[in-house]
Amino acid sequence: MKTLEEIPTPALILDLDRVEGNLRRMSERAAALGVALRPHIKTHKCLEIARLQRDLGCSGLTVSTLEEARVFAEHGFDDLTWAFPVILNRLDEAIHIAHEVDLGLVADSIATLEALEASGHALRVWMKVDCGYHRAGVDPDGPLAHELAQRLDASSTLRFNGLLTHAGHAYKTRTRAELSAVAEQERSSLVRLAERLRGSGIEVPSVSVGSTPTMSVVTDLTGVDEMRPGNYVFYDQMQAELGSCSIDDCAVTVLASVVSCQPEASHSVIDAGALALSKDALSTTGGDANFGKILEVLPPTPQPKPTRVSSLSQEHGIVDSSLAVGARVRIAPVHSCLAVACFDEYVVVRGDRVIDRWKIWRGR
Length: 364
Ligand SMILES: Cc1ncc(COP(=O)(O)O)c(C=O)c1O
Hints:
With 364 residues, the protein is of the alpha/beta class. It has eleven helices and 19 strands. Strands 1, 10, 11, 14, 15, 16, 17, 18 and 19 form a nine-stranded mixed beta sheet that branches. An eight-stranded parallel beta sheet has the order 2-9-8-7-6-5-4-3, with helices on one face. It binds pyridoxal-5'-phosphate. The site of pyridoxal-5'-phosphate has 11 residues, from loops.
């Protein structure tokens, strides 16, 4: 069996001990909070990991693309939520999948509801609600929320599944208190709307919330039925900075090698650029860009260890110290979901032993 010093780079390394720990802890959190866990698989796009999540008792899966829905449906996952506003020009594909498995769709406009009704198919539909992120979803306090819910409730073909939101603005918080406030806003705005709708005679079967940061800090999910975090399977630098995890929980790293380092240069070039790490960046305390944190140099070197990937082009990455050509670095990505989507497979390790390779299903 190979070690990390023997595999071709760039490679995406999955630390299975850490994944198992992350999955177990979020399952325990969901159980302690009294809600079902429907993990978002857009982070990992991997059947083997979804099976681990199923073994831990998840209620179903959340997907972001029709390709994820198709692949996971074909591999025995029969309860899916496509948590993305329906792409109307692909409604036929969604209906095809919905005939094979239980597929929940998401709508937040009259135009979408009309198209779903016009299809004549019995479809299960969540109403997407904006809990403060202001990306998509109806205003929970506005008239459209009531109108859409009423139409869903009255529909002879569509089945109203309930209210669904995602607190993406949690990623903009700077303190734990701010993050906790967003988590409570995510819960309370939906519960308030559910109560209003129920008060006017509309049945709201389910309330679904969830992002990794909010689900990592929330202490009360009264009125909520399920959570849908995704990133928690791997975490990343951004989550560590937000306080969702520690850097030691980061379960995927990019393994890259030094391909160039000029004699007078204070930087080295590695074979992991934007198409391995993505262009998501954090700032150092000094205000410099950080596209990835260097966790380890292989083999260990007496030279000053680089700390970060400081700039990127498509396939080149620049690290902030000089290293011997051929040396390897292990990098914690800023945003693991985007880094994973750059690769075709995980190199699965326990410790530094490679034990398997798992496919990443990354079509759209
Ligand atoms: C609708 C929806 N639900 C759940 C999630 C999972 O959130 P996170 O990636 O913070 O775990 C996302 C992520 O973008 C999302 O868009």
